Each structure stands twice: as C-alpha cells, then as structure tokens.
Amino acid sequence: MWSRRKKLKPARVDTVVGRNTVITGDVRFSGGLHLEGTVRGNLLAEDTSQDSILVLNQGALVEGDVRVPRVIINGAVEGDVYASVHVELAPHARIRGNLNYTLMEMAVGAEVNGSLVRQSEDPLRLEHLDVPTDKGRSDPERKKGLRQSGPGPEAALPESTTKDS
Q1: For residue 152, which phi and psi values (nearest 5 degrees)?
Q2: Quick one: DSSP state of residue 3?
Q3: Cβ–Cβ contacts within 10 Å for residue 87, how many?
Q4: Among residues 12, 38, 132, 138, which one has the fewest Cβ atoms lying within 10 Å of its Cβ?
Q5: How many CA atoms lie within 13 A of 2 on its CB side?
Q6: Domain ranges for the chain
Q7: Which residues contact 162 (CB under 8 A, 6 or more apart)?
Q8: Under a CB-based contact definition with an 8 Å cutoff, are residues 57 and 81 in contact?
C-alpha cells in the first residue's frame, strides 16, 4: 500500500538558523531552510518551484505567515501556512492559523487551530447540470406508490410473536 506513494525529493538544506537565534523581519530564501530558532516575521520562498523546502524543528517558532512549496513542521507557527506542494505535520507541530495545502501528512499529536483549506491543482469549473425529470408521472403519483395501506406492521407478525400476556 505505501509503495504506491509518490516519492518526494529529499530535503536539501542550504541555510540553518540555530536554536538560540531570533530573527525579526521577513525572511526570503531559496533552496532549503532548517529552522531551530525564532522568526518574528514571514517566511517566504523566493523560488516558488518545487525545490524550496522549510523544516521547522521541535522548539522552533514562526510568528508570521509561511509561504513555501514544501514544509515539514515539528515546531510552532502563529500565522497562516501556504504549502503549494506538500506539508508534513510531525507530532509536535502546532499551527495557530489557517493551513492551505495541496497534499498533507499529519502525525498523531499534531495540532491545527484554524481552517484546513485544500488547494486543488485543477482549476475550478462551473457547469450547469440538466437534471432529468420524470414527465410521465406527477409528484403525488410517485408518492402514492410508497404509501402503505391496510393495517400497521403488527398485523404482519405471526400469532406466536404477538403480545398476549
């Protein structure tokens, strides 16, 4: 069953933000970003291709929106997450905001306090569907065939199962 899954590219990390680091302001990056510290601002992938990835370690915190094609979260995000390709929520993931995703994996223990919004790769299509009508029968005639006539369900019971106590 699991062998049919599409294999994702391994995470290539170009930048590491350490555990005791606090960055104030938006962070724009390309390639891979591994975050163990805190970012007080938005995280934005410069190249919106499928190559950019963000990995949030346990204990990492982002106070802002995340717009990266591929995201692995095991830390906390206080803002909206936009993952156009894939998002993985590990057991310690905490998101306080909306999660916009195309493909999502969520482990037991992960939390999303907001809306889950699936972004389809297919464009929305509006269509008018013609619903066939049964012109030969009117509505009351159709309902008549469903009505029961005669005694209730008790009359169908054999004598041995009727209540004679």
Answers
A1: -70, -170
A2: G
A3: 26
A4: 132
A5: 0
A6: 9-118
A7: 154
A8: no
